[in-house]
Write a structure and sequence with these properties.
There is one protein chain. The chain folds into 3 domains: 15-88, Winged helix-like DNA-binding domain superfamily/Winged helix DNA-binding domain (Arc Repressor Mutant, subunit A, Orthogonal Bundle), CATH 1.10.10; 127-132 and 382-485, Aspartate Aminotransferase, domain 1, CATH 3.90.1150; 162-377, Aspartate Aminotransferase, domain 2. The strands form 4 sheets. Strands 4-11-10-9-8-5-6-7 form an 8-stranded mixed sheet, sandwiched between helices. A 4-stranded antiparallel sheet has the order 12-13-16-15, with helices on one face. The chain is of the alpha/beta class. It is built from 18 helices and 16 strands.
Length: 486
């Protein structure tokens, strides 16, 4: 018996896989009947001009799936137990009922669909001022590999389930010690919860705290990732103005609604870059205590401060257990590490531990072991000092370039911290037109407009500089000034 099968020898799909799919479809469409004998692997291989192993592999796959069976001394047959309704069916185009899909969705899922696309693709540019990307080419990969190999060779238990959903305890000890000496955070290792980056931390806290219609105070402008988490819980968002001292606490006092939580980035406000002043920190903590409001402190890149000492974290100044602290290694080590952490009040430990267990059981163990050793042996803080020096040089090049090529036409915000700055440019062109003109000459820009909940600002852009060489920064700002001068 010959099978009418055509194989595409140009396709990237392996021939055995193509053959498997063709035979499976023939069975399901009833072209091959139950108990029908198939050609031997040798004869089918010859007729299709393929190797015998291709046919054998295909037959073995279909037999494991229950479509075929081998009868000793007789050959290969279509399995006699294929359901009749499958044999009698004919291929049809799938019909998706939008009504059915919507009726199956939870309120949370419907909230997400209303948010829209969370991931925005960026075209490639010769010089991209994308924010948030560290200079990963300077990460000591050979050193990091040494720690990974150490635990691959010595710790077979890494292949098993982790014993604790909240993270490898020795790593939590190192993080607690580091935060105490660098950020004046007051915590025990038990209060440190390891998570898959700061975004998971925001998601966990949002789901634990917020009910639909709860009020959340957010910075204006502010971080989109946090805003989307709160919107996913159908919270009401109240934007609070950010001025030169950070979030304006006096504005908070003007609202009469009960806020469930307030989200802030006090060390390096995103995206403006300003630092929440000490008087404003004290005022915010007092307001939170008086109104029984939870503060989420996102300390995403506080390690990078230039020319001045960092102000202690809000968490270390808190006396009423009003603050949940979020940190991440994405900007310090490398983004794909996906290790962040929460520092929660003592009374929250059990609750957050249970939520983390339900979410994903535990974060990858090997990386936690390696990171613990990397920190304990002093490499982590040496790397921070090295990168702080590099980023400071690149920051200075960016600031000088703006001063040289734009002069008084630009206002530079938050230039003394982080790995990005926000720039206000005096121009009659719309943000979209500026971005379009810059893209035409190979420059990638990001407008700050979308980070406002109430869009009304024009001419503000976010410039990430950490991942760019000094010559690229200089060339990029020069080209930008030229297209805006035209």
């Amino acid at each position: 018996m010959d099978l009418a099968i055509n194989l595409d020898r140009i396709s990237t799909t392996p021939l055995y896989q193509q053959l498997t799919e063709k035979i499976r479809l023939a069975v399901l469409e009833g072209k091959l009947k139950p108990n029908q004998k198939l050609p031997s692997s040798r004869s089918l291989a010859k007729s299709l001009t393929v190797s015998r192993s291709t046919v054998t592999q295909s037959y073995e796959q279909l037999e494991s799936e229950g479509y075929l069976e081998t009868r000793r001394g007789s050959g290969t047959y279509v399995c006699h137990q294929i359901p009749d309704e499958w044999l009698q069916s004919t291929p049809i185009e799938p019909v998706i009922s939008k009504t059915l899909v919507k009726s199956c969705l939870s309120q949370f899922a419907q909230n997400l669909t209303s948010i829209g696309n969370l991931q925005v693709s960026e075209p490639d540019h010769a010089i991209s001022f994308r924010y948030g990307n560290p200079a990963i080419e300077y990460f000591p990969m050979q050193q990091w590999r040494k720690f990974l190999i150490r635990h691959c060779q010595q710790s077979p238990a890494l292949l098993n389930y982790a014993s604790d959903a909240v993270g490898y305890y020795p790593l939590r000890v190192e993080i607690a010690n580091y935060l105490g000496r660098s950020r004046a955070v007051q915590c025990t290792p038990e209060q440190v919860i390891i998570v898959n980056g700061s975004q998971q931390a925001l998601d966990l806290i949002s789901r634990l705290v917020l009910e639909p219609e709860d009020w959340v105070a957010i910075e204006e402008p502010g971080y989109l990732g946090a805003r989307y988490c709160f919107m996913g819980q159908r919270a009401n968002l109240q934007p609070i103005t950010v001025n030169s001292e950070g979030i304006d606490v006096s504005v908070l006092n003007k609202y009469h609604q009960k806020f469930k939580l307030v989200y802030v980035t006090p060390s390096h406000q995103f995206p403006t870059g300003v630092t929440l002043s000490l008087p404003q920190r004290i005022a915010l903590l007092q307001w939170a205590q008086e109104t029984n409001t939870l503060i989420i402190e996102d300390d995403y890149d506080s390690e990078y401060r230039y020319g001045e000492q960092p102000i202690p974290a809000l968490q270390g100044m808190d006396r009423s257990q009003s603050v949940i602290y979020i940190g991440t290694f994405s900007k310090i080590v490398f983004p794909s590490l996906r290790i962040g952490y929460l520092v929660v009040p003592q009374s929250w430990i059990s609750l957050v531990s249970r939520a983390k267990w339900l979410c994903d059981r535990f974060c990858p163990i090997l990386e936690q072991y390696a990171l613990r050793d990397w920190i304990a042996e002093g490499n982590f803080e040496r790397h921070i000092r090295r990168m702080r020096h590099l980023y400071n040089l690149r920051r200075q090049v960016l600031i000088r370039a703006f001063q040289n090529y734009f002069g008084e036409r630009v206002t530079i915000l938050g230039e003394n911290a982080g790995i990005h700055v926000m720039i206000r440019i005096k121009t009659v062109l719309s943000d979209d037109l500026v971005i379009q003109k810059a893209s035409a000459v190979g420059i990638g820009l990001i407008s700050a407009r979308e980070y406002y909940l109430l869009p009304q600002h024009q001419g503000e852009f976010i410039f990430g500089y950490a991942q760019l060489e000094e010559t690229q920064i200089e060339q990029g700002i020069l080209k930008l000034s030229q297209i805006l001068n035209q």
